[in-house]
Design goal:
- The protein contains 13 helices and no strands.
- It is mostly helical.
- The radius of gyration is 20 Å and the shape is globular.
- The structure holds cytidine-5'-monophosphate.
- The site of cytidine-5'-monophosphate (C5P) has 11 residues, from α9, α10 and α11.
Length: about 350
Amino acid sequence: ATTGHSDSSNFFKAYVILSMTLVWTGYTITVKYTRSRKAADEMYSSTTVVLLSEVVKMSISVAMLFYTYGCKFTEFKHCLSKYYFGQPRELAKMSVPSIAYAIQNNLDFVALSNLDPGVYQVTTQLKVVTTAVFMVLFLGRRFSRTRWFAILLLFAGVALVQLNSVLSNSSSQSSVKGAHKENYLLGIIAVLCTCVTAGFAGVYFEKMLKDGGSTPFWVRNLQMYSCGVISATCGMLMAESSDVFVKGFFYGYDEKVIAIIGLLSVGGVYISLVMKHLDNLHKSFASAVSILLVVLLSFFIFDGITIGFFFLAGAATVCGAVLLYNSVPENTSSESRPGIMI
Ligand code: C5P
């Protein structure tokens, strides 16, 4: 009975998921830190950061591919020409999640400009649920009732934790509170769409890794990130081209921005490893734990963050969800069905 998980050791799985959690925590804290400390006119452009991180992820994939072929150039070259240059259809297939991630970035922008950040942060957690639904549709996974309950509990827990941040922010930034908000309905529709595109992109990628033929893992990543470079370039040109051309690509860069690019790139690569060696739901659980860590660390680093009832209740709920999900052995839930073909 297969659940689609690879046979890697539990130790390696623990390493991958722990690293993903810590790297994303470091990334979020560094972004928050630079966004809160830098003056608006010294701010770096986030679309250049996303573009450079796609380039770094591409380079990491090439380096890892070279490494998996024992650093033998002839075999590495043969693999690239067979699986990357020789299979444009596969490359086209990988442009789908890459474009979905690009749409997600743009919709995030629409959502954030039309909604209160707190409402955005709470609603966006629904992607835990959409991810599970897509896993049923595309990967043929079936979850026992206990696991569905754990998934809903995870959503409720993270939403509660985010409510803690919303309340901290609204008491510390009351001047911003009444800021002009455009179109609430548009914002909510955008955020709901991002939950769909995020769940879809992640599950599509996992499907390509697990049922997508013999293409090596690092070539899959390379296909995804090369499309990512193109979509990130389009995103930069559409959203911030005038700023980037006037001020320059590297405007506002310092060592912390370089660290953000590094963390975003390594965090993305760890996410792909979690999808390969575990699955998308484990990724959702790891993201939830990372959100808890971010709030806890923010309490020590930033002013105006309080740890209140919502955080404690949310953290307890998230821990309960993690324990509950893992209390049911993987193979006892009803077995995999074929799922939608790509
Ligand atoms: O919002 P969500 O948790 O779905 O974001 C997933 C992140 O993981 C995105 O930033 C995406 O670029 C990244 N990712 C990656 N490599 C993959 C899959 C996802 O860098 N193979």
